Amino acid sequence: MGQDNLLEIENLRICVDSDGESLPIVDNINLTLKVGEILALVGESGCGKSVTAQSIMRLLPKMLKIETGQITWHSPKQGKPIDITGLDPRGKEIRHIRGDEIAMIFQEPMSSFSPLHTIGNQIMEVVRIHRNAGKKEARAVAVEMLDRVGIPDPNRVVEQYPHELSGGMRQRAMIAKALSCDPALLIADEPTTALDVTIQAQVLSLMNDLQREFGMAIVFITHDLGVVAQVADKVAIMYLGKIVEQGVTREILLNPKHPYTVNLLEAVPRLGRIEDRQALVPIQGNVPSLFDRPIGCPFVTRCSKVIADRCDVSNPSLSTISKDHKVACFLHETTERIPA
Amino acid sequence: MFNVVANRILWACLMMAAISVVAFTLIQLPPGDFVDSYVNHKQQGGVIMTKDEVAEMRGTLGLDRPMYVQYFDWVGGVVQGDFGFSWEFRRPVSEIIGERLPLTLILAFTTLLFTYLTAIPIGIYSAVRQYSVGDHVFTVLGYIGLATPNFMFALVLLYFAHVFFGTSAGGLFSAEFETAPWSWARIVDLLAHLWVPVVVLGTAGTAFQIRTMRATLLDELNKLYVTAARASGVSEFRLLIKYPVRMAINPIVSTIGWELTNIISGAPIVGIVLSLPDTGPLFVDALLNSDLYLAGALILIYCGLVIIGTLISDLLLIALDPRIRMGSTA
After folding, report:
1. Which residue segments constitute the domains of chain A, with CATH numbers given?
2. Residue A1 has pLDDT above 50, yes or no
3. What is the ipTM of this complex?
4. Do B225 and A99 touch (CB under 8 A)?
5. CB contact, 8 Å: A216 with chain B?
6. Distance from CA of B250 to the nearest CA of A (A)
7. With an 8 Å Cβ cutoff, are B236 and A90 in contact?
8. Nearest CB to A126; choose among B232, B323, B330
9. What is the pLDDT of residues A10-64, one digit of tens each?
10. B322 and A113: CB-CB below 8 Å?
11. pLDDT higher for B150 or B291?
C-alpha cells in the first residue's frame, strides 16, 4: 500500500437481513483513495453506491451490516491507521471522525437541515463539538464558512432558518457545514442531483474550487457521467453491488470496456449527437431486484454481448487490463496480470 | 411574529363570541321561559296569576324584549361575571360555579400535565427501542387504557385505592378536610385523592399520545437531517433530543386543545362515579333539571376552556416551530 493512501476499502461486503437470510447489498468492494484525490462512484439507483459511502462513516441503517472486509482510515489528524469496521457505530471514536475528519453532504439539501434550527446553529454545532470552541468563536467560523461557499450576506444567513433559503443556497450551506472542521475526506452523496441544472454547475465548480483550496479528498457519488468527467480523478462503476469497472477517469470514459459502462456513456445526452439526429440509446431492461440476483455476471440480463455458457454461469472477477484500468467482464479477461 | 400571535388571539375571541350565541340559543331552546315555569309553580301552590301580572313580571325581568336584546343583556352580564340565576339552587349561577370551578380547573390541568409528562417519555422510549420488550409492554397497556371505559376504570381504581391505600372512596377530600379552609394539609389531602380521577381521565389520552409520539418519532428518526446531524459527530442522546424529538413534539402539542376537550367531556361521568365536588355532577344535574342558566354558563365555561387549550397549543407551536412563526408553509 502506498504511503499517501488516505482510505483503503478491502473486500467490503454489506448484507441486509431479510427473514433470517442475509443478502449481500454490496460485495467485494476494493477502493483506495489518496490524499486530495477525487473518486467518483457511479451507477444506477440501488446499485449500492450510497451504502458503500455510508459504511465509511458507519452510518448504515440498522438492518444493514458490514459482514466482511476492512475500511482503513489513515487519519491525518490522529496520525495512525484506524480500522473503521472495528468501531462501535454509536461510540466515541467514530464520532471523533465524523464531521471532523470525514464529512458528508447529501442529495436533498431540502431535508438535510433540521427545519427547527437556524443554519448558524447547525454549523456552529459541528464546530463546537470538534473544536471545543465557544459560541462566539463558532459563530465566527460559521459566518466565515458561509462566506467562503459564496453565500451573500453570511451574517444574516447565519440567523436564518433552512426554509428561508433556496435549494442551491441550502446545498452551499451544507457544504459550509461539512467543511467547517477542515475534513480530510468529504463524501458527497449525489450533491447536485436535486438541483436545477444551472445551480448544479455552480455547485460543482464551487466544489472544485474548494477542493483545491482545502485539499480534501472527495468520494463523489453520482449517476451522471457528465459530472464525473468534470470533477473526478478516478472512477468506479458499480452495478448491483459490485464494481464492474474502475480506473482513471480519462481512461474509463475514453476507453470503456465493460458493456455496462459503454451503455451508460451512450445514454448520456450530448449536443453533437442531437445535431446528428442520433437517438439516445437507453439501457434495456431494469436493474434486477436484490432478491432475484442473476446467476453469473450481474449484468447478464441486460447485456448485449453475452457469451453463452459463460456469462450466465460464473461471475467474472475484476481483472487489471492496464495500469489505470480494471474491468470485470469475460470479454476483456486477461490471463496474465499486469502489475498495478 | 407579533401578527401571528395577535391573529390567533383574535380568532380565539371570535370563537368565544360565536359559542356564546350557541350557548344562549341552547338556553332558549326549550319551550317556555322562566316566567312560565314560575307561573306553573304558583299554580301548583294554588295561586293563579292574571295575564297582567304575568306580563308585568316579564316586563320587570326584561323577558318581553326581543331576543337579541336579551342576548346582549346576558352576554353583558357574563362579561361582568354575572351568569344569571339558578332556579334549582335559588342562588346566582356565578356563586355556585365559583365554588366548584377551581377544582374542575385543577383536575383538568393536572390531568393534562399527567398525560403529557407520561406520554412523551414513554413515546420516546418506545420509538427508540422499537419492538423491545418495554415497547410491547407499553403497547399492550396503552391499548387496554384506550379500550377501557372511564367509568369502569374509575370503579376499578376506586376499589384498589380503598383496599391498598385506604383512601376514602371517591371525593377529592377526606371527611375532615371537606369544608376546612385551604391549608398545606388540605392540599396534601387533595393530592392523595386527586390521582384517582387524574389517572382515570388521563389514561386514554396518555395511551393515545404515546402512540402519536412513537409513530411520529419513528418517522423522524429516519429523516435525512438526523443522519446529517449524526454524520457531523453529534452524540446519540443529544441528537435525539435536539432534532427528532423536537420535531415529533409538534403534533403532540397541537392536540392540547382537543385533549382538554376529551378530559372535560369525560369529567362529568367520572365525577359522578367518584362523587367529585367539581362542576361535572353539577352540569349533569343542571341538564336533567332544565336549570338553564346554570347549564348555559357551564357550556360556556367548558367551551372557553377548549378554546383556551387550543390557543395554548397554537402559541406553543408558534414558539416551537419557526416555519409557523413566520407564517410560511414550506
Report:
1. 1-101+184-281 (3.40.50.300), 112-182 (no CATH)
2. no
3. 0.86
4. no
5. no
6. 11
7. yes
8. B232
9. 999 999 987 778 888 999 999 999 999 999 999 888 888 999 999 999 999 888 9
10. no
11. B150
What residue type is assigned to position A43 of the chain?
Answer: G
Smallest Cβ–Cβ distance between A111 and the set B223, B320, B321 belongs to B223
Predicted local confidence at residue A252, as pLDDT: 94
Residue A334, pLDDT > 80, answer no
Contacts with A129 from chain B: Cβ below 8 Å? 232-234
Domain ranges of chain B: 101-216+244-290
Return the minimum-mean-pLDDT range out of A282-286, B22-26, B93-97, B241-245.
A282-286
**Tens digits of residue pLDDT in A55-106:** 999 999 888 999 999 999 999 888 889 999 999 999 999 999 999 999 999 9
Considering only CA atoms, which of A183, A179, A2, A181 is closest in space to residue A76?
A183
Question: Quick check: A115 and B234 CB within 8 A?
Answer: no
Average pLDDT over residues A166-185: 93
* Interchain contact, A125 vs B232, CB within 8 Å: yes
Helices B184-221 + B133-147 axis angle, to 10 = 120
Burial B27-47 (b: 16+ CB within 10 A, else e): beeeeebbbeeebeeeeeeee
Alpha-carbon distance of B294 to A276, in angstroms, equals 88
Give yes or no for residue B61 having a pLDDT over 50: yes
Other C-beta atoms closer than 10 Å to the C-beta of A243 total: 27
Interface of A with B in 86-115 (CB under 8 A): 90, 95-100, 103-104, 106, 108, 111-115
- Which of A248, A254, A245 is closest to A327 using CA atoms? A245
The predicted structure's pLDDT at residue A276: 65
CA distance B224 to chain A (A): 5
Question: Comparing C-alpha atoms, which of B194, B216, B24 is closest to residue B119?
Answer: B216
Cα separation, A154 vs A102, whole angstroms: 24
A118 contacts in chain B (CB < 8 Å):
322
